[in-house]
């Protein structure tokens, strides 16, 4: 019965779309010569047709999604609607609760299964709570407790393993943590850190506080970062690209300094608004497109790229993460292959993403990119009106290239077997 209902709905929507598109074509053919009123009418008609086309696409995806659901999943959707569930209730019914201990994700099949469970959850939320899911992705609503708890639990597990590995005599590495109050006013050795962590489990909170640079960030916070950098105020940020450095006689790789007059003249006098966006996008995402909105992203160890280069202070710690992070469900989304694209974020060796949830969201957006685009454009237009961007828009480049920055990431390929 439900499948028949969806098929009838699809036929009705398709007929309406064809009728409207036919009217648009007839109107276009009859218009000669065009006047200003004709152009305004055509523009309005095109917008209406585009809106109908998006609705057709949305309905078609809903039908396809429903058709692919198991009987159990369909029953959960019906219960959610009948009983007025919140998103948390649906996740609880899917047994996606805050884990009590570390999840065993070191086997590729376990990692894939966990991602599949979250993929199903995102798929069901797109049917039962589409507005809440969209608000989560955009950073306008805090992520579900289950998602935050799982990602943070796995981070703690990974960091604990990293601290213990740093104390191994054969291939340990140095972690410099500002925890001198714990060791009588001095930095503890790697062995002391590991021993203290094993003896006092609550010590992990201090370790995380010393290592964590950024985690969940809402859309308001991301908007402020974007606004501050576009207006060229506050502290230093990002790296000067080779293109900007050559044009302005600056040193590539150095940070932009808003208090520096030469930098300010270059920023406002030589770079177009779109080029300023590209400078920011090397290391910052546009509001609504930051993966930090999802509650799955963590910046750890440090934020200076030079500290992660071979031979530098954080290189060995990064090397351990590069080999071991996936055992805990984490990967580096902005790797060297992602940054090879013309429009992409630079490599960020400090940025680690919790794969099961983040990849489920990423695949959801990849599947619905044509529906996500007008949402982004509307949100950015609202921000520009608020910021007074009549003569200097804030999202010129992003409107054209948002897909590049969102989808050009390094997706891990889990090994077939682990020792």
Question: What is the string of helix and strand elements?
Answer: HHHHHHHHHEHHHHEHEEHHH
Secondary structure tally: strands: 4
Report, as a whole number of angstroms, the end-to-end distance.
50 Å
Neighbour order of strands in the largest sheet: 1-2-4-3
Gyration radius, rounded: 25 Å
Q: How many DSSP helices?
A: 17
Q: Which percent band covers the strand fraction?
A: under 5%
Largest sheet features? 4 strands, antiparallel
Helix content: 55-70%
Count of domain modules: 2
The residue-averaged pLDDT reads 87
Which residues sit in consecutive blocks of at least 5 with pLDDT less than 50? 4-13, 15-31
Shape: flat
Class derived from helix and strand content? mainly alpha
Protein name: M15 family metallopeptidase
GO molecular function: peptidase activity
GO biological process, one term: proteolysis
InterPro entries: DD-CPase-like (IPR052179), VanY-like_core_dom (IPR003709), Zn_M74/Hedgehog-like (IPR009045)
Give me the secondary-structure topology.
Elements: H1 2-30, H2 36-67, H3 71-83, H4 87-93, H5 108-128, H6 130-138, H7 145-166, H8 190-199, H9 203-211, E1 212-214, H10 219-230, H11 242-248, H12 261-270, H13 273-281, E2 297-300, H14 315-324, E3 330-331, E4 351-354, H15 355-367, H16 369-387, H17 396-407
Antiparallel strand pairs: 1-2, 2-4, 3-4
How would you sum up this structure, described in words?
By secondary structure, the protein is mostly helical. The chain has two domains: 66 residues; 299 residues, no CATH class. Helix content is 58%, strand content 3%. The protein has 17 helices and four strands. The chain has a four-stranded antiparallel beta sheet with strand order 1-2-4-3. Helix 5 packs across helix 15 and helix 7 crosses helix 8. InterPro entries: DD-CPase-like, VanY-like_core_dom, Zn_M74/Hedgehog-like. It holds the Pfam family VanY. It comes from Lujinxingia vulgaris. One of its GO terms (molecular function) is peptidase activity. This is M15 family metallopeptidase.
């Amino acid at each position: 019965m439900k499948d028949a209902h969806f098929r009838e709905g699809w036929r009705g929507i398709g007929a309406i779309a064809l009728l409207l598109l036919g009217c648009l074509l007839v109107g276009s053919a009859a218009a000669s010569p065009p006047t200003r009123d004709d152009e305004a009418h055509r523009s309005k008609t095109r917008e209406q047709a585009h809106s109908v086309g998006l609705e057709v696409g949305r309905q078609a995806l809903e039908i396809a999604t429903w058709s692919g659901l198991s009987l159990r999943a369909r029953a959960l959707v019906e219960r959610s609607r009948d009983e007025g569930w919140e998103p948390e209730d649906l996740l609880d019914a899917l047994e996606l609760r805050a884990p009590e201990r570390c999840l065993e994700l070191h086997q590729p099949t376990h990692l894939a299964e966990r991602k599949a469970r979250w993929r199903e959850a995102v798929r069901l939320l797109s049917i039962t709570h589409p507005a809440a899911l969209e608000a989560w992705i955009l950073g306008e609503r805090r992520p579900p407790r289950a998602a935050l708890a799982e990602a943070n639990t796995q981070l703690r597990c990974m960091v604990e393993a990293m601290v213990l590995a740093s104390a191994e005599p054969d291939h340990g590495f140095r972690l410099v943590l500002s925890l001198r109050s714990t060791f009588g006013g001095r930095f503890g050795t790697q062995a002391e850190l590991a021993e203290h962590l094993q003896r006092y489990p609550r010590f992990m909170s201090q370790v995380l506080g010393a290592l964590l640079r950024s985690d969940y960030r809402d859309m308001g916070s991301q908007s402020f970062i974007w606004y501050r950098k576009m207006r060229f105020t506050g502290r230093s940020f990002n790296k000067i690209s080779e293109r900007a450095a050559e044009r302005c006689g600056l040193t590539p790789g150095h940070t932009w300094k808003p208090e520096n007059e030469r930098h300010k003249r270059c920023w406002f006098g030589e770079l177009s608004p779109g080029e300023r966006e590209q400078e920011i996008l090397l290391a910052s995402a546009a509001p609504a497109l930051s993966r930090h909105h999802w509650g799955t992203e963590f910046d750890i160890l440090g934020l200076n790229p030079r500290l992660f280069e071979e031979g530098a202070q954080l290189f060995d710690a990064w090397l351990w993460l590069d080999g071991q992070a996936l055992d805990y469900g984490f990967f580096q989304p902005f790797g060297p292959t992602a940054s090879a694209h013309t429009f992409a974020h630079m490599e960020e060796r400090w940025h680690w993403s919790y794969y099961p949830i983040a990849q489920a969201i990423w695949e959801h957006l990849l599947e619905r990119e044509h529906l996500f685009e007008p949402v982004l454009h509307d949100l950015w237009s609202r921000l520009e009106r608020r910021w007074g961007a009549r003569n200097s828009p804030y999202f010129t480049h992003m409107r054209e290239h948002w897909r590049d920055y969102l989808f050009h990431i390094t997706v891990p390929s889990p090994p077939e077997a682990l020792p």
